[in-house]
Each structure stands twice: as C-alpha cells, then as structure tokens.
Specification:
Elements (H helix, E strand, L loop, with lengths): L2 E3 L7 H10 L5 E5 L2 H4 L6 E4 L8 H5 L4 E4 L6 H11 L3 E5 L8 H9 L4 E6 L10 H6 L2 E5 L4 E2 L4 H13 L6 E5 L5 E2 H12 L4 E5 L1 H12 L3 H13 L7 H6 L6 H7 L6
Parallel strand pairs: 1-2, 1-4, 2-3, 4-5, 5-6, 6-9, 7-11
Antiparallel strand pairs: 8-10
Helix pairs in contact: 1-7, 4-5, 8-12, 9-10
C-alpha cells in the first residue's frame, strides 16, 4: 500500500511521515518543494511538488493508494479530482472545525468521490509561540480575552491520528474532531508555560484599541480576526473531546507537557 504525504516538510506533514514509519509503513512517498533540503529518512520516496501547484501532482499521485492531504483550499478541488483519476482509494485530509475557513477542503474531498476521513483540529498548541518573544524578554505577558477558553491540540497528536487512520480500515466517512485533553483559558495557558519553565509569569489583559494594536503588530491583518475568535471563545468555550484517546489508547498531549518539550521556544 503506497501512501502519499503532501506537505511532507510542513509542521504536521513531516510528523505524519515519521508516524507512518514508526507504525511499520514500508511504502511512503513524501511530496516536498525542495527534496534536497527535506532531510527525509532514506526509506521514504521523495517527490517534488506542492498541492498549491496542481501541475506538479500527477507524477506524485501515480500508483498511490492512500493520500494525506495538507490543507490548501484554493487548489483542493483540482488536486482531489486528480487523486480520483489516479485511482487513490482513501483521502485523509486535515481541515478544521466545520463551517469555518477550511470547509472548502472537506467539500472538495467529498465532491471527488474518493472515500475520505476528515481531521478537524481546532487551535494548535504550538500557537503558544505567539507569547514567546514576551516570555524570552521577561516575566510579563500582555494578551487579550484572558477568559477565552479552548482545548488546543498538539501537532504531534494530529500526525499520530492521521497515520493511524491512513493505515487502518473502517474510518471511511468519519469526521474526527481533535482537541487536547483539557479546555484552558488563556490565563491558564500562560501559567502552564510558566510552570513548565520554572518561572512565575504575570498575565496582563489588554482591552479595546490596546488589544487590537498588540494583535495587529503580531499578526498583521489577521489580528482583528483572531481577536474576534477569542471573544467568541470567552462566551462559548470549546470543550475537550476524547478522540485522540479513543483512537490511540493514550491521552492527548497536555499543554504543560507540550511546553516542557518545547521549552527552547521560550528561552
């Protein structure tokens, strides 16, 4: 069974390759824009290409049985059509919560007629890196909507679930919501990072134009969009779900443990 991993040097795709190999997969093809810099294991077949450039996909899809589809809404319909024509028998896509920006990926996958599994992670735990410059500079973290609560999921867990369903049967037609093990407020997240680092961090909540100015400086035009999302999470917190545990038989990676493993981001 040949498995193609697109976005294979991206944050999640690279981990999917490693998870597949760790689970015994022997025919993995990795799609990357620069094979010479990919540093992929020698047992992996490397293909040059990018899902955002459909003209590069036919050779990569040749002989593929199962596909991990990295999210690229603009070209997803064309790439999925190519996958169907190439004889792909399962597409596992990474999208996001239903009805949001990534819905176009799920729609394209379902429209092409190939059996599918949707992975629907919410916020990544790695988004904690937004605070890294402040934490490296001192013990005060300025932020907004401190009561906004969700259950971020580690990219490591997304990759592990992706590999699991790529190698298994019986998940076709499933939409798998993926979260971390607990819903935390932004204040609680900063405190968890502090504990992981052995430091006491002070959370300072900004409001109004001060908050918008901060997030625009960090995220540019996406700052207002992100703040609006935080406002929604303050009134409607995202609960944690047990999908990672149910599928993998182990808890999802907790926030504080993730911060310990990635402490160098904050030092």
């Amino acid at each position: 069974m040949r498995i193609l991993v697109t976005g294979a040097t991206g944050n999640v795709g690279r981990m999917v390759v490693d998870e597949l190999l760790a689970r015994g997969a022997t025919d993995v093809r990795a799609l990357t824009v620069d094979p010479s810099r990919a540093a992929l294991p020698p047992s992996v077949e490397v293909a040059r290409g990018f899902v955002g450039r459909p003209s590069s996909m036919p050779a990569a899809l040749a002989g593929v049985d199962r596909l991990y589809l990295a999210p690229h809404p603009a070209t997803a319909p064309e790439v999925c059509r190519m996958a169907a024509e190439a004889g792909v028998r399962l597409i596992v896509d990474m999208a996001g919560p239903k009805g949001e920006h990534w819905q176009a990926v799920e729609d394209a996958v379902e429209a092409c007629g190939v059996p599918w599994v949707h992975l629907e992670p919410g916020e990544f735990t790695a988004n904690a890196e937004i605070w890294a410059p402040q934490i490296r500079a001192g013990d005060v973290v300025q932020d907004a909507w401190g009561a906004a609560a969700n259950a971020p999921v580690a990219q490591e867990d997304i990759a592990a679930v992706a590999a699991h369903v790529l190698l298994a049967d019986g998940f076709e037609g499933s939409s798998l919501e993926l979260t971390g093990p607990a819903s935390l407020t932004r204040r609680e997240k900063v405190a968890a990072i502090g504990r992981a680092l052995g430091r006491d961090l002070t959370y300072v909540e900004l409001r109004g134009e001060e908050a918008r100015s901060l997030f625009r400086s960090i995220m540019g035009p996406h700052g207002d969009w992100y703040l609006d999302g935080l406002a929604q999470l303050a009134s409607r917190p995202q609960p944690a779900v047990s999908t990672v545990f149910d599928l993998l038989g182990r808890p999802a990676l907790g926030y504080e443990e993730w911060a310990r493993r990635h402490a160098d981001l904050f030092r």
